[in-house]
Amino acid sequence: MLGSSFAPLLDEKTILSSALSLESQSDHPVAKAITSYALSRGAHQLPISELTQTPGIGIAGRVTIKDKAPVVIIGTPESIAHSTIAFDSAISAAIKAAEEQAQAVAVLAWDGVAIAVFATADSIKKDAAATIRELHKRGIDSWLITGDTAESAARVAHEVGIDNARLMAHALPEDKLAKISELQARGNKVAMIGDGVNDAAALAQSDLSIAMGTGTDTAISTADITIMRPELMGIVDSLQLAGKTLKTIKMNLTWAFLYNVVGIPVAALGLMSPMYAAGAMALSSLFVVTNSLRIR
User: Fold this and answer.
1) Residue partners of 67: CB distance under 8 A and separation at least 6
2) What is the set of domains in the chain, with CATH numbers?
3) Taking the complete model, does pTM exceed 0.70, yes or no?
């Protein structure tokens, strides 16, 4: 059990302040949700030291609370269970209730004793299902690879139209990386869309990496493309724009090649006056610029 010296500290505001002090150091979406909630309840930052963060697992540190400095850890129930004594029945019941509602769960522990449970739920973007449908129309298979619980992942997959056969829950960063590599080994070209630190390795491995502008700096700096607006349909628009750009480049190169194959011999043989040659060159440049502007 938690030492009796900590008993006077076990009030909601202090517990939330300890959670806030750690989670404010993380860019993970769940950490941001907990940070926002703790601040809304009047929690405040406490001094921390010995901070350790493990992507996909949790975060730990020594938090100074008045004249005490317990080791505070917060993370997935599985990771916290390995670092604490057996969960109290109330903690276990809260975890089970949250998971049954397909919510993501984080457990907070002081000095090896779990004392609080945080449950969060994903807010699915309005255009998520439409984006998945558009990708499928283009022959692009969609996978959902997430560190969330199986129940939460299954709910999201069902709502957006992703088949359960292409669903992977409880995925750590190395699991995401392994799945990307596996798909590539089958001969697939893989585009990875992510917004967190846990996605960075998989983003770097993928053939095309896309980050959301609201994501972490790590994901944005790793990605080939960053979608600045919040709508997921921007992913489809980016792919369309890339396709149009590549098509235009090929058209311009083809025109330039054919123009020079015909024009250079004519000019070399003296069959065209310099004035007409200059005019023809200007028309060629005008064609390339005008054709490129069609992308708009």
Assistant:
1) none
2) 4-120 (3.40.1110.10), 128-237 (3.40.50.1000), 240-293 (no CATH)
3) no
